[in-house]
Structures are given as structure tokens and as C-alpha cells.
Amino acid sequence: MAGVIVWAAWSSAFGQTAPLTNTVTASSFTAYTVDAQSNPSLTLERGVTYVFQVNAAFHPFYIKTVFTNGLDVDEYTNGVTGNGVTDGSLTFAVPLDAPDLLYYHCGNHFPMGGTLNIINPPAPPAVKVVFVSISDTAVTMQSIGASNWTAIPEFNSNLTLSAWATVPNFTNVFANGTNTTTFNRLDPICGPNVFLRIRNQSQ
After folding, report:
1. Mean pLDDT, each 10-residue run in order, the chain (203 residues)
2. Residues 98, 175: one domain?
3. CATH of the domain at 94
4. Count of CB atoms within 10 A of residue 84's CB?
5. 111 lies in the same domain as 162
6. How far apart are CA 51 and CA 91, in angstroms?
7. Domain that includes residue 55, residue range
8. Alpha helices of the chain — where are they, by DSSP H?
9. Which residues contact 92 (CB under 8 A, 6 or more apart)?
10. Is 155 exposed, middle or buried (0-12, 13-18, 19+ CB in 10 A)?
């Protein structure tokens, strides 16, 4: 690691107000139970992928543009895989141009379902790498500006390929406003020259 260039980056995965994976079951003919709540209103972020694990026989689960029952009626399909599932997964990769309001709804029963409030993700933090130390065996990096994020070190030995990889076996400790990230030298993996960055991901 004779030549090292370091900077900070941020992740496209932001904090969610709904879990990334949601458990969906049926409660009679009037409600879906989503993560132990009856027909809850959920808030989803654009650019984030959510999975709804559905176990609701006779109650096809749809993402819709209008709160109405009916199979294959008013479906929202952009970014949705598995509309109408009764036993399995519906995946919703929320598009950046998704409308502000959508619905999840049973294809057979009118009262079953709820609203999906679609919001923009928060702005990324202003992150700075403020310290790098390289010993004979280890690398220590310190970064500031992301108290509610997890610092993940990444490396690349050829920027023309733009292929960044996560540094193996790193440790990260946050204290007094500073993330301290430590890992073994990367010479055995990438040779003497390497580009490093800290990617911050929401916790």
C-alpha cells in the first residue's frame, strides 16, 4: 500500500420508517396484519426496496393506485414484483418517480388494506475522512459527520473499472462524533497501490 487515496462516500440505502421486510397475514375478511398491526399506514422511501412476506390464503395482496378491490384492477406495477400474491413475496423497489400516495389492498375484500405514503429519502450526511494511519500490519481510518450511519470501508485498485469492494474483516467504533475504522493491510489482495473510501450506510 505504497500509494493510498482516501475519500468519503454515502450509500443509496437510507433509513426507513417501514421495515425492509414486512410480514403480512390475514385477519378475517377485514384486515391485513402487517408486522402485528391491523391495516397500518406505512411510509416507504423512494429508491429503497421493500419485501412483503405474504401468508394470506384467499386474500391476494396488491399494490394499487386506488383503494379498491378487484383482481388486476388499478394495479401499480412500476417496481413491483408479485402483485396478487397470497403465499410468497411481493417486492417493491420504490421508483424515484413514485406518486406520494399508493395503497396495499386485497383483491377480493374491500376493507382489507391501507395506505402507502411515499416520501423522498433524507439528504446524505456531510462526511469527511479526517485521519488515516498505516502501520506494517493495519490501516486505521477516522471519519466524522455521520453519527447515525455505519462506516463501511471499501477499496479499489483500478478506478477505470469502478469496481469497489468492501474491505474484509474490518471493525468500526463510533465515539465522540468520530467513526474509527480498522482493518488489515490490503497488499495481499490488491498489491502496493490502492484507493480507499468510507461508504456510510444507514443503521
Report:
1. 45 57 92 94 93 96 92 92 96 96 94 94 78 91 79 83 87 88 89 82 65
2. no
3. 2.60.40.420
4. 14
5. no
6. 4
7. 21-119
8. 187-190
9. 44, 49, 50, 51, 52, 63, 79, 80, 81
10. buried
Whether residue 106 is found in the same domain as residue 135? no
Distances (CA, A) of 64 to 27, 28, 49, 61, 78: 20, 21, 17, 10, 11
And the C-alpha cell for 28?
A: 378475517
CA distance 104 to 69: 10
User: Per-residue DSSP letters for 65-118?
Assistant: SSS---TTSSB--TTEE-TTBSEEEEEEE--TT--SEEEEEESS-TT-EEEEEE
Q: From 89, 119, 149, give the residue that closes a domain.
A: 119
The single residue listed with the C-alpha cell 462524533 is: 177
Amino acid at residue number 98: A
- Domain stop point among 61, 86, 119: 119
Instruction: Quote the cell numbers at residue 101.
Output: 400516495
Can you give the pLDDT at residue 17?
64
Looking at the structure, tell me whether residues 143 and 62 fall in a common domain. Answer: no
- Supply the CATH number for residue 176's domain: 2.60.40.10
